[in-house]
Amino acid sequence: METGIYVIAEHNELPFTGTLEAFTLARVLASARGWSVHLLVLGSDIGNQAKQLAEKTGCDVLAIEGNALEEYSAEGYCAALREQLSGMEAGLICIPGTSRGNEYAPALALALSSGCLPDVTRFRTEGEHLVFTRTGWYGKLEMEAVISSPRGVLTVSPGAFRFEEIPRPPGRITRVHSDLPLSDTLDVQAETSEETESGLLEAEVIVAGGRGLRKAENLPHLHDLASLFRRSAVGGSRPACDSGWLSYGSQIGFTGKTVAPRLYIACGISGSPQHIAGMKGARFVVVINSDPEAPFFQNADIGIVARLEEFIPVFVEGVRASRS
Amino acid sequence: MKILVCIKQVADGESRFDLDESGHLSLRESETAFRINRYDEFALEEALQIRDSLGDVTVEVVSLGPLRVESSLRRALEMGADNAYHLIIDTSPDTPLARARQLAFFAAARDYDLILTGIQSEDELWGQTGPSLAALMGWPCATTVIRQELNREDRTVTACREINVNSREMITLRLPALLSLQSGINRPRYPSLSHKLRARKQDIMRIDVGGGTADDNLTIKALHRPRSEKRGLRLEGNLQEKAEQLRELLRERSLL
What we know:
The complex is a heterodimer. Chain A is α/β, with parallel strands linked by helices.
């Protein structure tokens, strides 16, 4: 098997957001290294998916089909990918940095004696080496890492690489059968639920709260602030929802909603990569946080270092006074 | 039934994360507040709830690190853990696989039925120690778990995994298994006074793990501050002045 980059498609993904972002990193890496890119799709009936991906990317697709792959399981993915990729002598495996991708990547890496680096956001070349960047330390610092094994496994941070279609003839599709039985995974069922209505997607102005709210009693401040704007809504980061201050339907971020309002006011949100992934499209961003080092300030148009429960009442009163 | 909960001690998010000249973190330990990684508190709470509802369950906690991690293990005992183990190492290895190797070495001969971890650590955000540990043990694992149900007779666990905002997955795994829990799965308890008093008398078992194991395949080179995506304007002055400036800036842009 040739040295190259193998992109593993997210299971049953439509549209192919995560897969195409992983492909985008792979395409840039490949042109830096002179490697080829291959897409691997796993499932039980995936002819259509393989065809669409081959057309969209112009990249050769290996469709791995098997009964045990109908639903995603880490065990099924690791077994099938190990079987297919064990002949790969060198190169990289790029996996979307989703809940599933980050679940099976470490086991796959171990099975292939490869280094594993999750949530890659950038890379650079340094002589012979590829140096990858990922975010850590509460989003306040980034780390650079090098995979020293000949084969490496990466997961690609959601939103870090935007896919752009380049017109190319469709790639070739090869279909293989993989019939490895599952032994420790007894049953998997996918469930989808209706998205809950929160008004966030239609709102032009979003006031969002995070852990910095500190207690439910501070929630009215967010509503007071939102009430100054027409077509506004209140949302929050995952910790605010986990604490029960806001419902999960109003969660903004990678595991919540993706929003793109005209104005986004973040109150007491540190700005984790998961949260930023859900609001990157906002056109104007105001960040209010008591921690001057909060990473969210890096993404702010206006930054205000203050406690939200002290700042918001002063601001609201000022606006109301100027209007009357 | 025996459950192991892996706990990481982290520096609080508002600590000063200074870097030395070679790009390594230099924490001023005496000025830093250390505590249990919040995600791991969800894991401990889930284990305690399993014990509360099933009975005849032993909940053990383990943490890897220097002496200071014992304050977090003590806190775990106060929350209600039965036993605490400290894998003593001066400097914790810097990759998830190397840490998982230490944990696997500890857990291998101890007959756990279930290992619980948090989804990730708040500080480094790797999210890999749990699944790496499962892979080293040869156990099945599920991550981003938002609900679980153990079936002692069948020796299985059914976990509901969060895939994204409107999709989930129900997966049934054979025990022993490892679950990495998503935040919000429960509300971690505050230790009661009686538990606090009891925890004072409990011993923390120390195991010296020496120099640690390396991860030969991944090298962390250096840390740096992120480059700013936007050159934001930082407002100065007292609250009143900041509020007035914000009002004007939003008005100029017809946002208010």
